[in-house]
Design brief:
Blueprint lengths: L4 H9 L5 H13 L9 H16 L12 H25 L3 H26 L20 H18 L5 H20 L4 H26 L8 H16 L6 H21 L2 H22 L5 H32 L4 H10 L3
């Protein structure tokens, strides 16, 4: 749990610790380097500024940059990358992990632009597409940009070891899976293929994130971005599948329920959020199509909601016993990891 000043003052009033000890603890906590993001104004400014800079070189890149030509784009990208690395080292030296990680991520995000410019300069760009389409369309020749981004991302992540550096790597892996599928199978039936590839790529990313989490001994959460984009890829591919079968839709509902359970078990909210959205989507389908003429359905759904609230009360009362029972079937390493993460 997060400890604040009011809680420490409450412990002083209960004579658990002295006032001097409370002040010493506060001073100690403030001296610790911040390796995890918080929802405060400083961190909001960090991420807002970082995403503006990264977005300018990626999602919001316009056609005006084409006037610089391939060589111009390449050298401008190198200049920006040098500035990004300089800032990364500067913030690292000052112990500012969050802005250092954001600046390192900016360098990784510049890699596909630099490779695009180099390909244009060498005259090996295969068609009339431009860089601004990189994040919006699927093409086989993005592969050089993606593989280069992964290589640079791994190098920088190994050097600086900030969790946010995993974000562009996770996104690029997702892009790479889509482009590889089109390269191998062609553009025919590409939409259906993309949905399937997205789903299985998401599962693979979730598995990698789980492995990273189990193996990591650092307090930094290196698996967060892998989990996030893995769940998005899996859930997005799963939810976009079309079927007229009510059984298939019910299976979709049970998978989303399973995601909620997994999220609670491994303490990952992203599973719970997307699982809940999927469950609500299925219930909406029932209300709009299957039981649209039934006056009993809203009443039944209300009773079900109240029952779920009751289950929540029972869970709160018996959470520790239920959690320990559920985790008893897991391997020792994983059980110890989850126990260490569990917040009372």
């Amino acid at each position: 749990m997060n400890i604040n000043r009011e809680q420490l003052e409450g412990a002083v009033k209960e004579n658990i610790i002295s006032s001097q000890q409370a002040n010493q603890l506060i001073a100690f906590f403030k001296q610790q380097p911040e390796i995890t993001p918080k929802f405060d104004f400083t961190h909001v400014l960090y991420y807002l500024g970082g995403m503006l800079a990264i977005g300018a070189m990626t999602l919001f890149m316009n056609l005006g940059w084409e006037s610089f030509g391939g060589l111009g784009i390449f050298f401008i990208s190198l200049f920006y990358a040098a500035v990004g690395l300089k800032l990364t080292n500067h913030f690292k030296a000052k112990g500012l992990a969050i802005p250092a990680g954001i600046c390192g991520t900016f360098v990784i995000a510049l890699t596909p632009l630099a490779v695009y410019g180099l390909q244009q300069a060498l005259g090996v760009w295969p068609d009339e597409s431009v860089y601004r389409q990189y994040h919006r369309t699927i093409k086989w020749h993005w592969l050089y940009m993606e593989l280069s981004t992964l290589a640079v991302g791994v190098i920088i992540a190994r050097k600086y070891k900030y969790p946010f550096l995993i974000m562009p790597i996770a996104v690029t892996l997702w892009y790479l899976s889509m482009d590889l599928s089109v390269m191998i199978y062609g553009d025919e039936n590409s939409w259906q293929l993309r949905k399937v590839v997205s789903m299985y790529t998401g599962l693979l990313m979730i598995a990698v994130a789980f492995y990273v989490e189990v193996r990591s001994t650092s307090k930094a959460d290196y698996s967060f971005w892998l989990y996030l984009f893995g769940v998005i890829a899996f859930w997005g591919g799963l939810s976009s599948q079309s079927s007229d079968s009510e059984l298939a839709k019910f299976i979709y509902f049970t998978i989303n329920l399973g995601m909620i359970f997994i999220g609670v078990l491994i303490i990952r909210r992203v599973f719970v959020v997307f699982g809940a959205i999927g469950c609500c989507g299925y219930i909406s389908h029932l209300a709009s199509n299957v039981f649209k003429e039934s006056w009993l359905f809203p009443i039944s759904l209300t009773l079900l909601g109240l029952f779920v609230i009751y289950l929540g009360v029972l869970w709160q009362k018996n959470e520790l016993a239920i959690t320990e029972k559920a985790r008893s079937v897991l391997p020792d390493t994983l059980r110890k990891l989850l126990a260490a993460k569990h917040r009372l």
